[in-house]
Specification:
- The chain is of the alpha/beta class.
- It folds into two domains: 154 residues, Medium-chain alcohol dehydrogenases, catalytic domain (Quinone Oxidoreductase, Chain A, domain 1, Alpha-Beta Complex), CATH 3.90.180; 149 residues, Rossmann fold.
- Helices cover 33% and strands 27% of the residues.
- It contains 13 helices and 16 strands.
- Strands 3, 5, 6, 7, 8, 15 and 16 form a seven-stranded mixed β-sheet that branches.
- The chain starts with a strand and ends with a strand.
- The model has no long low-confidence stretch (mean pLDDT 96).
- The protein binds NADP nicotinamide-adenine-dinucleotide phosphate.
- NADP nicotinamide-adenine-dinucleotide phosphate binds next to helix 2, helix 4, helix 5 and strand 10.
Amino acid sequence: MKAIQHIRYGEISESIKFSEIEKPTISKDEVLIETFAASVNPLDIKVIKGKLKALGKYTLPATVGYDVSGKVVEKGEDVINFNIGDEVYAYVDKQGSFAEFVSVKQNILSLKPKNISFEEAASLPLVSLTASQVLKRGQLKSGDRILIQAGSGGVGFLAIQLAKAKGAYVYTTTSTDNVAWVKALGADRVIDYKAEDYKTIVKDVDMVLDTLGNEYTEDAFKVIKKGGKVITLVGPVDKETAKRMKLNFFVKLYLTWKRRKITKQIKHKSAYYSLLLMRANAKQLNEVTGLVESGQVKTVIDKVFPLKDALNAILYVTKGRTKGKVVIKIT
Ligand SMILES: NC(=O)c1ccc[n+]([C@@H]2O[C@H](COP(=O)([O-])OP(=O)(O)OC[C@H]3O[C@@H](n4cnc5c(N)ncnc54)[C@H](OP(=O)(O)O)[C@@H]3O)[C@@H](O)[C@H]2O)c1
């Protein structure tokens, strides 16, 4: 089958290859999906460049991609909730969706929303699970006020809609060109970061979703209320997460040093701070399916590339300027 393979760590253009590889086989609790679409995430870029080597073992070559939509064409004998022909989507928690077929465990698979295309479905799993898990960790509730950084990004445009579905007041940031469509997603106050400083507009919010890192993580504490929450996707590793990751003593010591400014801010604001590392979760993806089918959540696709152009799709995302999601059409 045709697949985009990650062959070495380094620059994207030298590290991935359009290849012909063996079709995957399935185990008892897996289905084989004929892939119709996949989508690109900044995670693909970080993995290809070797930036996440410390977090897990990757054996190369490996097929690129985490989001998939397609049809079930084979099922293992223990698969009870899915049948041949089912239209499905998933975040595959190992790499592998930029290929004509992908094997997926039944416990991370969901039926695709009926009212959207395969391309639209493939744009959703990773970013919608991330946004759901952030709001759950922060226990966002009706009437809360939240700042979502980068409302025009993959995570941002979903977090806005999910936060509005919960009844929160949403501030978000984006550049001038994106203000109108981000506002149309339901954000209450869209801050054009080219013209305005969000720190002068957002005050005493219950929660910040930090998708940007660096100074944005520290500055998040300036805009939360006392006792507020900062959930980051890219900032320094917090103490609890470092514990869960079972890192060795010296790495933990280094991480403590790295988050020293954040530690001061946490104390100063009596704040909750957490680095969220998203996980596959079929139950949460089923909830997203429901919200999409009821029209409460929509996807936003910037561009669709054919599989043979996956390199250009990934390079496009590397620029960090995508409006919503970039999708790969497989068949
Ligand atoms: N920890 C986890 O489990 C997890 C999960 C998902 C994602 N992530 C990480 O979270 C980050 C965001 O992911 P994503 O998929 O949303 O990325 P993305 O789709 O690539 O984000 C691109 C968007 O960011 C906006 N942006 C860039 N700089 C900005 C700024 N200074 N202020 C406001 N908006 C800005 C851009 O809008 P403009 O062109 O208007 O600037 C663009 O629309 C990535 O680093 C990703 O790896 C982590």
